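Render TetR/AcrR family transcriptional regulator in 3D.
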Amino acid sequence: MPRKPNYDRNELIGRARDLFWRQGWAGTSLKDLEATLQMKPGSFYAAFGSKDALFKLALERYASEGRARLRKLADEEGPLKALQRFPAMVVENSDAPAKACMLSKTLLELQAHNSPLSEDANQHLLKMESQFANLFQEAQSDGSIAATHDPKVLARRYQSDLLGLRVSAERDGIDAEAIAQEIADGLAQL
């Protein structure tokens, strides 16, 4: 009869997500993962199968937590307020291992290698864009923004602004909070 593992799988995925987010896929070795997760190679492979499999789980965790955070904010404050507050939340998150988006970092790092993980990251970005479009549509329905705007176009522009904000937040001398405020102010004009 196999032994029950003495670790919390979800907690390990969270630690791996933070390591991958900070260092990227190529910058994270199996030794780094084994040290961070405090696992021996055999236990690591038994638990996750491969570095790619764990990275895929980490991407899913990152993306689903971001979507859930935005949905919760929208439920509490309404769709437009959530979209206005989200950029500041991104740059003010001092617990984040990196300011840049893990999904966009993955896409840029692995797309040139035709890695299936880059397609996973792209699919997560598309889901996030769809969530933005839904929130813009909800804001139209409640009268917060004019019905003349295409929610999908707004969502693409908003996601592009967020990705640019997150890259800017990594740079020295850039006032990312001011950029986040500019994004929020732009939404107030809709």
